[in-house]
Amino acid sequence: MAHQFQPATYKFGSFALDAETGALLCGNAPTLLGRRGAALLRLLLERAPSPVGKDALIEAAWPGLNVEESNLTVQIAALRRALEQDGGGPWIETLPRRGYRYIGPPMTRIAGSGDDAGHEPAFQLPEKPSIAVLPFEHSAESAWFADGVVEDIITGLSRIRWLFVIARYSSFVWRGRVADVKQVGRDLGLRYVLQGSVRRADDRVRINALLADTASGAHIWAERFDRTVGDLFALQDEIALAVVGAIEPSLRRAEVERIRRKRPDSLDAYELVLRAQPDVDSGMPDRAAIAMPQLQRALALEPTYALAHGFAAMSHHNRFLRAGLKEEDRLASVRHARLAIEHGRDDALALTFAGFSLGMDAHDRQAAFAAFEAALALSPSTALAWILGSVVAGWAGEAERAIDWSERGIRLSPFDPWAFAAYDAQALGHFCRDRYAEAAIAAYKSNLANPAHSITWVQLAASLAALGRFDEAKAAAVCVLELQPTFRISRQFAGVACAPELAAKLGEALRAAGLPE
Predict the structure, then answer these.
(1) Global pTM?
(2) What region, left, alpha or beta, does residue 99 occupy, with left being phi > 0 and alpha being psi -120 to 50 degrees?
(3) Which residues contact residue 420 at a Cβ distance below 8 angstroms, ignoring those fewer than 6 apart?
């Protein structure tokens, strides 16, 4: 049974151990032991001067886990190094085949409250969401690879303009320690921590990654990446790209939830844009009507806010394409897209939304892909650039590019709020190549990802009709008209400048499903 501790401060010699946070103070200078190092030191102090067996120490530091004894040896060595500062002697004695014993100055235990009261952060939180990537746990032979992955992740995250990323030299202070995420947040003044591990067996590499909120300690996102060893440098790049691509939308969702809990009258331009984001991401005109006043307020506060212009462009696109094809909405979409490009040359997400509006509403696909490619040059992990680019390619009749780009986007961000658009593009690509069964599968995925979006039902109706499943196709067509009563085949295709050959085949299928010309 694990030895249980109440939060407290343990004082001995010139040291004080904060039992809850794992901070070891020598005078006023902190030395971070991490959760496991602190658990070992607490148990040794509590049991002093009696010996503590290795099994008891392992259970205290790794409760319920089956770990090798070498892990304990590493932690004890780190603990000894921490105690050697300020004249601290060899206060942890090794008892061969028995365990360890604390033999330093007498210890005094001061009871604590068990909460975070009184723990002030060392730095004020930045206005942007902030993150540290801690060194990944690894075996000895994987050290260089693990560090390379972490450095690539830090570099990739640093390209995301709206994110404050702690430099490698600060985050690597936690090398060899199991860090408490709340303590990391307080010490570095940040909101999120990414931790992970690298394991290698024969020709396989497994990366585990976990993103946590430092305020609550709650896990926001976790993923496992299994790869076959080949070119290790290429593998390092691939994994870092996948991790960054998955983190970005997860962080945005976490930030949106955080902002929703704040009083609306306290919002600045950044927070107004975050509040608008879920409605923009919905792709539907009624939700766009909710987003637009917040974006207008944000732009009144900061007229050159590129991402606000990008979101406004998408909102007007949603109104244009699914709320009557009004020319004023199309013009507003293009105007905001051009402003997003003008003010956001270093903002990958703003360029992505701008590219989409230019491709879909200005019908300028060359300009659209220039914007997408500029976004990807800034931040190759921007999954949304691949996803929205795939949609533009799909309606242009570029089947292979639509499928390839959509698959890249899904690979980077499998649970992206825009995943429905990637599957929609796949459906278009397969339909264009007369692969109707594959088109129907992609359309089902699109519909499951966002059943409130009318175009997911359009693709489903067309694919099912092309397969001769007319009853199901007509049921999907009913859903189209419920969500978008103004839907008309010819006007919709004109609105997106659908490629003529694709328009002819899609139109035939949609008419067979019962949608109006």
Answers:
(1) 0.62
(2) left
(3) 283, 445, 446, 447, 449, 450, 453, 456
Rounded CA gap, 48 and 103, in Å? 7
Sequence-distant (6+) residues with CB within 8 A of 269 are 297, 298, 299, 301, 302, 305, 308
Determine the Cα–Cα distance for residues 434 and 501; give it in Å rounded to an integer.
Answer: 12
CA distances from 240 to 107, 123, 156, 484, 510 (A): 45, 28, 8, 40, 42
Residue by residue, DSSP assigns 81-149 as HHHTGGG----EEEETTTEEEE-SS-EEEEE--SSSTT---SSPPPSS-EEEEPPPEE-GGGHHHHHHH
CA angle 314, 320, 326 (to 5 degrees): 145
Radius of gyration of the chain (CA): 28
* Single-letter amino acid code for the residue at 103: I
For residue range 364-385, list pLDDT tens digits in order.
Answer: 999 999 999 999 888 877 888 9
- Please choose, from the candidates 481, 173, 495, the residue with its C-alpha nearest in 3D space to the C-alpha of residue 357: 495
- Domains plus CATH for the chain? 8-111 (1.10.10.10), 130-260 (3.40.50.10610), 264-380 (1.25.40.10), 402-415+426-517 (1.25.40.10)
Q: How far apart are CA 296 and CA 140, in angstroms?
A: 54
Give DSSP secondary structure letters for 426-440.
HHHHHHHTT-HHHHH
Q: Determine the length of the chain.
A: 517
Q: Measure the CA–CA gap between 193 and 216, rounded to whole angstroms.
A: 12
CB burial string 237-249: b at 16+ within 10 A, e below:
bbbbbbbbbbbbb
Q: Measured between alpha carbons, how far is 467 from 445 in angstroms, rounded to an integer?
A: 17
Helices 419-432 and 436-449 cross at an angle (nearest 10°) of 170
pLDDT in tens, 178-233: 667 887 887 777 888 888 888 877 777 888 888 888 887 878 778 787 877 776 66
DSSP H or E stretch at residue 265: none
Side-chain half-sphere CA neighbours of 344 within 13 A: 31
Strands of the sheet containing 29-32, edge to edge, are 29-32, 23-26, 15-18, 8-12, 107-111
